[in-house]
Amino acid sequence: MNPEINIAQYITYVFAAFSLASALMVITAKNPVQAALALVLTFFLSAGIWLTLEAEFLAITLVLVYVGAVMVLFLFVVMMLDINMAQLRAGFIRYLPIGLLVAVLLAVLLIMVVGPAHFGLEQFAAPTRHAADYSNVRELGRVMYTVYVYPFEIASVILLVAIIAAIALTLRRRPDTKRQDPTQQIAVKRADRMRVVDMKAEAKK
Amino acid sequence: MSFEIPDVMPALPEIFILSMACIILVVDLFLSKTSRGASYMLSQATLIIAVLITVATFSEASVLSFSDTFVRDGIADVLKIAVYIATFMVFLYAKDYLKDRGLFKGEFYTLGLFAVLGMMILISAHNFLTIYLGLELLSLSLYAMVALHRDSIQASEAAMKYFVLGAIASGMLLYGMSMIYGITGSLDLAVISANAANVSDNIVLIFGIVFLLIGVAFKLGAVPFHMWVPDVYQGAPTAVTIFIGSAPKLAAFAMLMRLLMDGLGSVSAQWQDILILLVLLSLAVGNIVAIAQVNIKRMLAYSTISHIGFLMLGVVAGTEEGVSASMFYAITYTLMSLGGFAMIILLSRKGFEAEKLADFKGLNQRSPWYAFLMLILMFSMAGVPPFLGFWAKLSVLSAVISVDLVWLAVASVIFSIIGAFYYLRVIKIMYFDKAESSEPIHCSKDMSLLISVNAFAVLLIGLFPGGLLSLCLNVVSAS
Question: What residues contact residue B4 under an 8 Å CB cut-off, 6+ apart?
């Protein structure tokens, strides 16, 4: 057996095991901030798995977008909100048996269907490794604007709709809010703000 | 890799709608509150021109473009034209309702047009990726439209439910797609169909199909994935409910047909039984639970569920005749549900929603004409000849019988007879109960005209169904 592949396999298993453990932490952590941080770790480890699959661009995007942007935002929200964990956990013990049952059934089903019996190396040969100078980004860019130009454009429209929806649902003009009007501030004259009062000089007694 | 510059001409209607939606978005920013009607007029003009473009470039031959991610055939053209017309009617019906409730904003129209674009993409999809993206574009616009009435707690709750369940459904659909991609090695529907027939490993294929169908059933609102439908129909502003309940059903039919017939047609034995189960459950739950409803929007939601059951019946048959019958059903159902919800809008006024069945009491004494229009619509939904709904049910049933599923046809007929009860109850309430309010019914001339045209179209096409039926059959057999 090729020892090089073995090392890559071990790395994949390590990443997989740790990401499972950190994903478990996400849902069991007592503190929501800890849960969010565990989710960050999960994203990092999944990015690692993608790296071992030679999907470098996706791995970097995952870290940049999810860890860099989404999770930071998420952490802010979690810190700002006063989440009552006791209330959230109220039904935990009651729902545990049925939850466990569903989880175990799902896991067994997934292993049966997606496991080595149907997706093993006998059914699908391992893809050939690319040379060191193979560029993932170049290949993606090459098809993104040619073969997949139609889906790409649709994706951009979806983002536009998301922007419109977010603004339409959150932008409110309340009549009673006080706000600055820069043009008025600039156009202000001395007479608007200041009043020169004639006063008699008062003599010291 | 070889690549040729795609021919953009087949996608001209999509490009036009997208450009106009963006233009209306910008124009609306510069409009004052009093000239908001301009956005409305522009949207309506856009839809009319889109109809003209599609009719002018209509062809029954199937054309692939954009590296086979896009297909334009007769089915797509007919369904797209139906979508434009349905949306045109929705915008007209919704106008006064929105004005009365302070919801008359440009966003309603831009989001509506983007939803139309999503439906068009879904109708013309020839690739898993385009199906998914079209569905997301449609759903995202609809979630936002439901939530547009921000001060209503009911609407926010409905939007939240719709969004969360819709997201789960998208996840299911994607998971199923990834499984089928894994086993067939392609996202292209034609290639999937060719490869799926030679797959040795059936278990993964079935696993993928099950997830795919769960996702589709969620979006269609088929039982047992229907729980969101009544809540969303009831909670959303009626102007949005009428939109959700009409045009997207055409797109949902297109999605079902593209996925199951174009993509997995070669392995129909694997999904037929699952679909039969969905059909039977939808018919049973939709028709029986609707009897217990006192809210007419909720009742029509359950009626949608049962109609979705009928719609899927034609696809179960899996023949050309069956698909064209389903297509006919989708178009007729859209027309009937537009009329039904428009009556609710008509009876509502500022500060009052005619949501209860009791609000229809004695409609005949208040306005014999509107009561008569509602009578046509309810008879048609119940499937009483000679109205349009009868022919839709008949063509679907004959397609099912022709593939020797007689027991299924019999079961469907029994459930639709049970369902006839609650449609006829509406008629009984209108004609034989005493009116509780003597409030005259106010509505603008254009709405009154359109609702009359709508109901009479149901009657007239019902008397002469041949044209539309043969059009559906022609385009289905040509592609």
Answer: none
pLDDT at A175 over 80: no
**Which of B4, B22, B39, B69 has the most A C-beta neighbours within 10 Å, making it the best mutation to test the interface with A?**
B69
Return the amino acid letter for B274.
Answer: I
Percent helix, strand, coil in chain A (nearest 5)?
70, 0, 30
B128 and B186 in contact (C-beta within 8 Å)?
no
**Residue B306 and residue B226: Cα distance in Å, rounded?**
11
Which distant-in-sequence residues (6+ apart) come within 8 Å of A205 by Cβ? none
Q: Report the predicted TM-score, pTM, of the whole model to 2 decimal places.
A: 0.91
CA of A115: which chain B residue's CA is closest?
B204
Token digits of residue B308: 């979705």
Report yes or no: B134 at the A interface, CB cutoff 8 Å. Answer: yes
Find the chain A residues whose C-beta atoms sit closer than 8 A to any C-beta of B. 113-114, 118-119, 123, 142-143, 146-151, 154-155, 157-158, 160-162, 164-165, 168-169, 172
Q: Which residue has the tokens 């740790």?
A: A18
Which residues lie closer than 8 Å to B342 by C-beta, 6 or more apart? B89, B93, B242, B447, B450, B451, B454
Q: What is the pLDDT of residue A198?
A: 86
Residues 93-122 of B with CB under 8 A from A: 105, 107, 110-111, 114, 117, 121
pLDDT of residue B175: 93
Which pLDDT belongs to residue B1?
53
HEC readout, chain B: CCCCCCCCHHHHHHHHHHHHHHHHHHHHHCCCHHHCHHHHHHHHHHHHHHHHHHHHCCCCCCEEECCCCEEECHHHHHHHHHHHHHHHHHHHHHHHHHHHCCCCCHHHHHHHHHHHHHHHHHHCECEHHHHHHHHHHHHHHHHHHHHCCCCCHHHHHHHHHHHHHHHHHHHHHHHHHHHHHHHHCCCEHHHHHHHHCCCCCHHHHHHHHHHHHHHHHHHHCCCCCCCHHHHHHHHCCHHHHHHHCCHHHHHHHHHHHHHHHHHCHHHHHHHHHHHHHHHHHHHHHHHHHHHCCCEHHHHHHHHHHHHHHHHHHHHHHCCHHHHHHHHHHHHHHHHHHHHHHHHHHHHCECCECCCEHHHHCCHHHHCHHHHHHHHHHHHHHHCCCCCHHHHHHHHHHHHHHHCCCHHHHHHHHHHHHHHHHHHHHHHHHHHHCCCCCCCCCCCCHHHHHHHHHHHHHHHHHHHCCHHHHHHHHHHHHHC
> Can you give the C-alpha Rg of chain B in angstroms?
21
Instruction: Output A104 or B385, whichever has higher pLDDT.
Output: A104
Residues of chain B with pLDDT under 70: 1-2
Mean pLDDT of chain B: 92
State how far residue B322 is from chain A, nearest Cα, in angstroms: 30
Q: Using one digit for the tens of pLDDT, what is the confidence trace for A121-140?
A: 777 777 788 888 888 888 88
